[in-house]
Amino acid sequence: MTARIIDGKAIAQEVRAEWKIRADALKARGITPGLAVIIVGEDPASKVYVANKVKACAELGLHSEHIALPADTSEAALLAKIAELNADPKIHGLLVQLPVPKHIDGDKVLNAISPDKDVDGFHPINVGALATGNMRFAPCTPYGSLVLLQKSGVSIEGKHAVVVGRSNIVGKPMALLLLQHNATVTICTSKTVDLAKYTRDADILVVATGRPKMITGDMIKLGAAVIDVGINRMADGKLCGDVDFESAKEVAGWITPVPGGVGPMTITMLVANTVQSAERSAGI
Ligand SMILES: NC(=O)C1=CN([C@@H]2O[C@H](COP(=O)(O)OP(=O)(O)OC[C@H]3O[C@@H](n4cnc5c(N)ncnc54)[C@H](OP(=O)(O)O)[C@@H]3O)[C@@H](O)[C@H]2O)C=CC1
Ligand SMILES: Nc1nc(=O)c2c([nH]1)NC[C@@H]1CN(c3ccc(C(=O)N[C@@H](CCC(=O)O)C(=O)O)cc3)C=[N+]21
Fold it and tell me: Looking at the UniProt record for this protein, which Gene Ontology cellular component terms does it annotate, in alphabetical order (predicted)?
């Protein structure tokens, strides 16, 4: 058996076209959705992300601001910049690239972003809204992973979904989204004893550990849908996922590649959340 490859790039284009219609409708009413991204210091992963984001905004005709602050920016200066953008009517979506340098308190930063502009969905109010089923902004990577499953025709209801990883930005919100769609959800972590016991029982397997190729074909159930969130840059400069694609594709029913899987969807859901935020601010 060879898995169907879930083409994240193609699905991202399709979803962007849907959101472009909504962005155009707003523009016809004189509102251009605007996204601001703040990046403090240099982080290679964030650089790729920012470049792709600028491209996606241009594609949809959104206003975008990219604010690059030096690595030694004080916490107070960053919070002041956030306050300024919170009050800027041109900006409907605002995010600070993570991780922030060590001298800045990441939680303080997430708390400072207006929950109404928090297109990452990381503010505690939005985290709570997701957990209680009143979602406002779904975190982009889990949201994009969910849309990949839906667009690929993978049914979620009643299925056993196993999420490997419990970070606040990927694993935990992914588990909540799958639960909301009536999957039976298991969350595995680095402390899980006999990880393969769980992964082998997964109809849907989402992997977000940051451990290159740690999930191999023998850990996957025949016909499972495998979503590989991992983005790891190898010594040769190439990217690879947390799943060993070569062995996994022989067992899985569906699988996402890296690159070209979840990554392009993360960017797409970010612009989608920005358009949605602009709609909300216009009372639509
Ligand atoms: N495609 C995209 O758009 C994005 C991709 N990423 C990528 O996804 C990956 C994960 O990111 P992120 O969630 O931020 O990472 P974190 O490092 O914050 O979290 C990793 C999680 O994986 C768990 N873990 C680590 N090793 C194992 C193991 N051997 N077995 C089981 N669980 C394990 C950890 O468990 P514990 O909690 O016990 O330590 C932790 O919960 C990275 O490769 C990152 O680059 C991230 C964001 C967006
Ligand atoms: N506040 C915040 N929110 C985030 O969502 C966030 C963040 N900070 N910090 C960094 C990580 C990383 N991340 C990526 C998203 C998309 C690609 C992406 O577009 N990947 C493409 C291209 C990869 C390439 O060509 O190098 C792909 O996988 O095909 C990469 C990385 C979001 N993150």
Answer: cytosol
Annotated binding site for NADP(+): 165-167, 231
CA 93 to chain centre: 15
Surface-to-core class of residue 40, CB atoms within 10 Å of its CB (0-12 exposed, 13-18 middle, 19+ buried): buried
By annotation, the residues acting in catalysis are 53, 97, 120
Task: Delimit the CATH 3.40.50.10860 region(s) of the chain.
Answer: 30-115
Q: Whose CA is closest to atom 11 on ligand 2?
A: 46
* CATH 3.40.50.720 location in the chain: 140-263
Q: What pTM was computed for the model?
A: 0.97
Superfamily of domain 140-263: NAD(P)-binding Rossmann-like Domain (3.40.50.720)
Annotated binding residues: 165-167, 231
d(CA 196, CA 215): 9
The topology under which CATH files domain 30-115 is: Rossmann fold (3.40.50)
Mean predicted confidence (pLDDT) in 170-196: 98
Question: Tens digits of per-residue pLDDT, 105-124?
Answer: 999 999 999 999 999 999 99
- In tens, the pLDDT along 139-155 reads 999 999 999 999 999 99
DSSP state of 215: B
**Strand bridging mode 160-164 / 204-207:** parallel
Residue with token string 């550990």 = 209
Dump the DSSP string for 25-43: HHHHTT---EEEEEEES--
